[in-house]
Amino acid sequence: MVDDCKARRIDCFKAYDVRGRLGTELDEDIAWRIGRAFAQARQARQVIVGRDSRETSPALAAALIRGLTEGGADVRDLGLAGTEEMYFATAHFGADGGIEVTASHNPIDYNGMKLVGSGARPLDPATEFAELAELARSGRFVPAARQGTARDFAQARDTYAAALVDFVDVGVLRPLKVLVNAGNGTAGPAFDAIADQLAQRGAPLEFVRINHDPDSRFPNGIPNPLLPENQPMTADAVREHGADLGVAWDGDFDRCFFFDETGRFIPGEYIVGLLAAAFLERSPGEKIVHDPRVVLNTRDVIARAGGQAVQARTGHAFLKKAMREEGAIYGGEMSAHHYFRDFHFADSGMIPWLLVVELISRKGVALSALLSQRMAAFPSSGEINFRLDDPAGAIDRVIARFAQAALRRDDTDGISLEFADWRFNLRSSNTEPVVRLNVESRGDAALVRDRAAEIGAILAAPSA
What we know:
By secondary structure, the protein is of the alpha/beta class. It has helices spanning 28-42, 57-70, 83-92, 128-138, 156-165, 187-200, 231-241, 268-282, 296-304, 316-326, 351-363, 367-377, 391-402, 445-460; strands spanning 18-21, 46-51, 74-80, 97-101, 110-117, 150-152, 176-181, 205-210, 245-249, 256-259, 265-266, 287-290, 308-311, 330-332, 338-340, 346-347, 384-386, 408-410, 415-418, 422-428, 435-441. It has 14 helices and 21 strands. The strands form four sheets. It has a six-stranded mixed β-sheet with strand order 1-5-4-2-3-6, with helices on both faces. A five-stranded mixed β-sheet has the order 8-7-9-10-11, sandwiched between helices. Strand 12, helix 9 and strand 13 (308-311) form a beta-alpha-beta unit. The N and C termini lie far apart (56 Å). The model has no long low-confidence stretch (mean pLDDT 96).
């Protein structure tokens, strides 16, 4: 006997998580199916569930929880919580898996889910995640031997906040003013719990909060600080308040973005290099994992610090897999995802700013002084996105133009071609229908601009 549930077309399963347009690609029935399939496929007895601040997230989370409990799983509900709080609770409390209802930085008419197994380990995209998707679509659910239960688990936040503050030596922190912009997303309450822990331990930090309260209307737009149009609000506030640095998060705060004391936005790849150097200073010879999009600064930092650079495919499932296989102490992506061995190999948007504040305190210099030389030595274009009618044909035209002259070609993720003084990576997004271009050089910003313009023109040219 199986549950009375017909097969259904479901298009919200992406490379390794769930993202879909509300009403057509994702609704409460699909959320129920995902919960029911997760409980059955994972044989889960206990599952952690959290949700972001989007208007549809409570209803989708309720349907997901109903599916999980009907599948025999006991649910511990974090309520409004960031993705990394779900990761932490799943691993720390020994659950069989965890699910966060979130669309992160996607448009307002989207929602989604991030799913992990025990120990906050990502589901293998080709096997475990594919099995889950097939079961949710088919509806071939076997009645569970028991009815699961659901209970509130909001108290997990205090344990999470204490664990994060343990990442830094509070005793070395200097009096610093930190401007934080939660973007009316999910970060505010978790940040407050961390700030309380810091205050209890005597940290001499002053925080200026903007757009701090969760608001499902997103009055200042979907929180995505990577977009240039979203950066001036944080930059202006840093200057207005005379802050030592600014920090901004995306909607589910698994990414964080930095602004120095002048209000200058710091691209993510330079923060990867900064944190890699800091870890290697304390633990020489360790392995650092990075993605293939922008690598010249990161490789140089790691080599100078005596570490071992390991490249992995872009995306949290792939970075975490590489980190676990290599035992890497830290991993980072230029998109502002940062992964930590001592945080169950998971990504966190809160640990990075804690580490940067500690680093500024230890070095006794401004954030700009820590980064300006590296940014000049290895300038990069930032990620340039193209929506194309024929992405494959456009990429082939770029390869035809540049491949023969390249010194090295790398197909780890999209295509990377490296030359004597510059390099580019061109890839299709794992989560959006766009082609992404990154160009970087060794000390030649004009070369970066010229090559980015040339490649952009080739991509935008009509197909023959």
